[in-house]
Amino acid sequence: MELVIFILTYLNMFSFIITEPVIKVGAIFPQEAEQNFNYPEMVFQYAVHKLNLDKSLLPDTQVVHHTQYITNDSFQAVQKVCNLIHIGVQAIFSPSNSALAAHINSICAELDIPDIGTGRSTQEFSINVHPSKQYVNYAFIDVIQYLNWTRFGILYEKNYGILALNQLSRSVQSELHIRQVSPTSYFSVLKEFKHKEIHNIIIDTNSADIAILLKNILQQQMNEYKYQYLFTSFDLETFDLEDFKYNFVNITSFRLVDMGDVAVKEILKDIDLYNRRIFKQNQTVFKQQKSAVIETNAALMFDSVYVFAIGLQSIYPLINLSNSTCDDEVPWNGGLSLINYINAVEWKGLTGPIQFKEGQRVQFKLDLIKLKQHSIVKVGEWTPQNHLNITEPSLFFDTGSMNVTLVVITILETPYVMMRYGKNFTGNERFYGFCVDILETVAREVGFDYILDLVPDRKYGAKDPETGQWNGMVAELMKYKADLAVGSMTITYARESVIDFTKPFMNLGISILFKVPTTQPNRLFSFLNPLAIEIWIYVIAAYLLVSLTIYIVAKLSPMEWQFIIPCDLENITKRNQFSFSDSLWFTIGTLMQQGSDIHPKAVSTRIITSIWGFFSLIIVASYTANLAAFLTVERMMNPIENADDLASQTEISYGTLESGSTMTFFRDSMIETYKKMWRIMDNKRQLAFTTTYEDGIRRVNQGNYAFLMESTMLDYIVQRDCNLTQIGGLLDTKDRRQHKHKQRI
Predict the structure, then answer these.
(1) How open is the CA angle 77-83-85, to the nearest 5 degrees?
(2) Per residue in 524-544, pLDDT tens?
(3) Helix (H, G, I), strand (E, B) or coil at 431
(4) Are 250 and 225 in contact (CB under 8 A)?
(5) Contact by Cβ (8 Å): 294, 268
(6) What are phi and psi for residue 703, nearest 5 degrees?
(7) In terms of C-beta density within 10 A (0-12 exposed, 13-18 middle, 19 or more buried), how is residue 199 classed?
(8) pLDDT, tens only, 12-30
(9) Contacts of 704 (CB under 8 A, 6+ apart)
(10) How far is CA 680 from CA 463, 646, 683, 693, 701, in A?
(11) Degrees (nearest 5) of the Cα angle 62, 125, 102?
């Protein structure tokens, strides 16, 4: 009786298996997954299992999976794919290996078998559940621009990198250092980046070797707060970052799976239970996988199974079973329709919203995550429609979390840094000024304490051309005696090669400070200044000579004689109208253009007076023109007008601030005028160079000295001292930086 029941039960199960249609799918995994635990393969099996339990998608249908394992041998991979096609699979889930994916896709495209990939590579005619590489590249470019990286390095591995380096280099205006690496070269490249002080690094390598890379970072002691790492892997939450949590190192990445989503948590819990059951049935050692996280590749494998099922649902059971083989090379007549339906799938899976365009995934959401002291937190998100949206900007500039005290050096220069002299002022309270206010604001926003003090030698910093040694604030930074320097530091090529600068807050140049020429005091006879003394002597001599000539000629001319009493015929008396005094009066009246009661009658006297009148007209017009100019405009003539005048004379001394950027400019200049000026200053160092700006200004006020200084400081001084002025224009143009720093390694 029991035997009969067993036979009937067996026959019922057999009839069920026979009548229930079977959908065959194939999957390809690495060879090492056959001997060792492979989490993506387990998730793939779970997805097929869950799909068979869920009859809402493919009712009365059994999905059966067939698995093949391959190495890096392309010939072997082609054979394994042909084996799957010969079995009659209706879809192949290809690996993430981009080199082999191309061979697999070529066979599937030839036979119209859907090739559903989960890797970063993009293959024609395939369906890739991984987000489009182009959009992912845009996401990382947006992050780089948000972080304002002007100088960074990239570590990438061939066949594993997700970034399109050509597109990245064209999209960002930054200094890039790109290195192709392998696990054996991680250490040497990191050492090179540390030596070059490249603190911003993009890690675009194989996720399986991240543990080796993190170990090398620790060995190089590059796990400090000044380093920023941007990982292109979506599996940051699966990495062991315990040694990085408490050093304030900045580690940022994207994730594709939202671990906080309720539906995702339920699926991950179910996967964990399935994982335990499988290991128990196989009597193998159970390998614990964090139930709170899932590898991106495994999540994509889960979504790819459901994308295939949703696409198949739209055409099943109208589609015919695949009977293609690699030998016949006859395409599956239902494969192209199935590919089109899969392309039209819109669904939300473990990796978020899914939508395709020409086989590429164009709808997804990337969560931007950042390492904090106790956990990895979400700080923003990126979508192809809205691009980057930072929800927690304060976490990139976490106020007060660094808990560090920086040694800051400065130099006195009005109005940037000034000092209060008094017994009640100590420490940082001694200093005030524009740069000090900026330093205080930055410290409050970024979150660090500082100790501010003066540089010992009171110099900005210049390089000795003979010894190659630096002095001033630059030397203090290079020797790591200070972490930061604040002041009106001018950027030069030599300085920028050894220290880092912030962005400039003003443009400036070198100009000449000189004392305003003093005017001559007014004198009683200053009205004589329009004409030279020789001219006045000639005018007086001409006046006397013309008066004497008129007197003599009038005496000789009968026309200039007239009767005194014309009506008295008995006492006829004649008198000449041009006596000597009358001649003088007539001449001076003509010169003053006032005339007199005497008029010449003779032709000879009229000729003389006409000549004198014309002469008087010229003299008076010239004097009037010059007198107006002297009375309305007081001309102040500078002894120098530009640098050429300064270089071509020896009466006026000139110089600049010792060990400053202006001194370096003249020392290194190739222009002949500036080279000549440098030779003169170098030969007269005691007279030319000053230790402070105040000393140079004092010497200019004493006279006969020109001070070469930066235009911004010169403008500030000229506005407050009317005895000083700027001579000429700018000798050069450059940037001034608010802060400069060379961080401690």
Answers:
(1) 105
(2) 676 777 788 888 888 889 888
(3) strand
(4) yes
(5) yes
(6) 100, 155
(7) buried
(8) 444 434 446 888 999 988 8
(9) 651, 652, 653
(10) 20, 11, 5, 20, 21
(11) 95
Q: Is 495 annotated as belonging to a binding site? A: yes
With tokens 């961080």, the residue in question is 743
606 in a labelled binding site: no
Six token digits for residue 276: 């335990």
- Domains in the chain (CATH in brackets) are 22-130+263-360 (3.40.50.2300), 133-255+367-395 (3.40.50.2300), 406-506 (3.40.190.10), 526-632 (1.10.287.70), 643-743 (3.40.190.10)
The CA distance from 25 to 254, in Å, is 31
| Contact yes or no for 381/368 (Cβ under 8 A) | yes
Residues whose CB is less than 8 angstroms from the CB of residue 362 and which lie 6 or more positions away in sequence, other chains included: 132, 135, 355, 356, 384
- Cα(395)–Cα(375) distance, integer angstroms: 13
* CA separation, residue 568 to residues 92, 561, 652 (Å): 155, 16, 83
Task: Please report which confidence band the pLDDT of residue 363 belongs to, taking 50, 70 and 90 as the band edges.
Answer: very high
List all residues 6 or more positions away from 544 whose beta carbon is below 8 Å from its beta carbon. none
Cα–Cα distance measured from residue 72 to residue 102, given in angstroms and rounded to the nearest whole number:
12
Arithmetic mean of pLDDT over the chain: 81
Question: Tokens 């089109």 correspond to what residue?
Answer: 340
632 has binding-site annotation: no
710 is in an annotated binding site: yes
Quote the tokens at residue 199: 């603190």
- Taking Cα atoms as reference points, which of 67, 103, 59, 102 lies closest to residue 84? 67
**Amino acid at the residue 651:** E
CB 287 within 8 A of CB 279: yes
Is residue 662 marked as binding? yes
* H helices, E strands: number in the chain: 24, 30
pLDDT tens-digit map of 616-647? 888 888 888 887 777 665 555 567 888 888 88
Query: Which residues, 6+ apart, have CB-to-CB distance to 420 below 8 Å?
Result: 429, 430, 431, 432
Is 698 in a helix, a strand, or coil? helix
Planar angle of CA 204, 206, 212, nearest 5 degrees? 100
Distance from C-alpha of 745 to C-alpha of 160, rounded to nearest angstrom: 31
Do the Cβ atoms of 470 and 478 come closer than 8 Å?
yes
Per-residue pLDDT tens digits for 285-344:
445 455 567 888 889 999 999 999 999 888 877 676 667 788 877 888 888 888 889 999
Backbone angles phi, psi at 730, to 5 degrees: -85, 135
CA distance 424 to 422: 5
Name the DSSP letter for residue 372. -
Alpha-carbon Rg for the chain, nearest whole angstrom, is 48
Question: 207-222 pLDDT, tens per residue?
Answer: 888 889 999 999 888 8
Task: Specify whether the backbone of 248 is left (phi greater than 0), alpha (psi in -120 to 50) or beta.
Answer: left
Largest CA distance in the chain: 201
Element (H, E) at 117: strand 115-117
Query: Can you tell me the distance from the alpha carbon of 438 to that of 441, in angstroms, rounded to the nearest whole number?
Result: 5
Three-class secondary structure of residue 660 per DSSP: coil
Beta carbons within 10 angstroms of residue 9's beta carbon? 10
How far is Cα 444 from Cα 197, in angstroms, rounded to an integer? 25
